[in-house]
Amino acid sequence: MKSLHFSSALLLALCACGIVSAEGWGTIKGKFVVDGKVPPPAELNITKDKAVCTKKKLFDENLLVGPDGGLKNVCVWVSLGRRDPQPPVHPSYEGTANEAIQVDNLACAYVPHVAVVRPSQKVEFTNSDPIAHNFKVDGFANNPFNSLVPAGGTYEHQFTSEERVPMVASCSIHPWMTGYIVCKESPYVAVSAEDGTFEIKNMPAGEWNFQFWHTSGGYLGEVTMGGKKEKDRKGEYEVEVEDGETTDLGVITVSADILTK
User: Fold this and answer.
1) CATH for 98-186, among 3.40.50.261, 3.30.200.20, 2.60.40.420, 3.10.129.10?
2) Which pLDDT score, from 0 to 100, does residue 217 have?
3) Most buried of the four, 90, 99, 166, 237, by CB within 10 Å?
């Protein structure tokens, strides 16, 4: 899909300084729905620390579909070319630019399953369990780390760069535990809720490419949006954001076959 490219060196410099303003702001929203049947989430095999880790049944969270077909944990973010500047940031995001993001270990599961963070924000990897866990996070642009966090403890970490795709978080002590961290410079990121809905507020007006990525299917290379089938191997889809308006993408249908390959 075609991206926005700004050729002016002056514009690039201004964007780098964070002083370019948008020609208005708008909101996008939509709902991801699965077309077809997917298997129910598999119950995880708990092999260690059962007194803590079996307080409730744990299931694979990578493919969660609601009663009406809503698809949870679809990640949506602004996709930029290598030479594209970051989009202007609405003032409403300034207050959270340095706000800490928490990722917890709770009953031997990551909460939330998918966390969103900016490089300006620190992540508090917290362990609310009465047993030790370790946070092992692997990225490409950021150095991987593996830190032991004792019961009731916290490990604070700050990523230095955004990542092309979500990073995987895991626990070597409890190998069934997995989670994801979406690290992007731009605050224009959303993760679909239990009913498949998502919303990104105060986007700069204009035409933007958004990438759709899911914890089970990776890039969503084929969707039906606005009644029209769209294909892109990297899951990039162009959306026009209108000043002062909410662009409702409606139901975005994803084939079950893509998610269960």
Assistant:
1) 2.60.40.420
2) 85
3) 166
CB 125 within 8 A of CB 115: no
C-alpha distance from residue 177 to each of 35, 78, 104, 148, 245 (Å): 28, 28, 12, 14, 41
Looking at per-residue pLDDT, the higher value among 7 and 225 belongs to: 225
Size of the chain, expressed as the number of residues it contains: 261
- Classify residue 98 as exposed, middle or buried by CB count within 10 Å of its CB (0-12, 13-18, 19+): exposed
Q: Are 75 and 191 in contact (CB under 8 A)?
A: yes
Q: Whole-angstrom Cα distance, residue 232 to residue 144?
A: 30
Give the whole-angstrom CA distance, residue 243 versus residue 13.
24
pLDDT tens by residue, 204-232: 999 999 999 999 989 999 999 999 999 99
pLDDT at 73: 98
How much of the chain, in percent, has pLDDT values that exceed 90? 87
pLDDT tens digit sequence for 104-130: 999 999 999 999 999 999 999 999 999
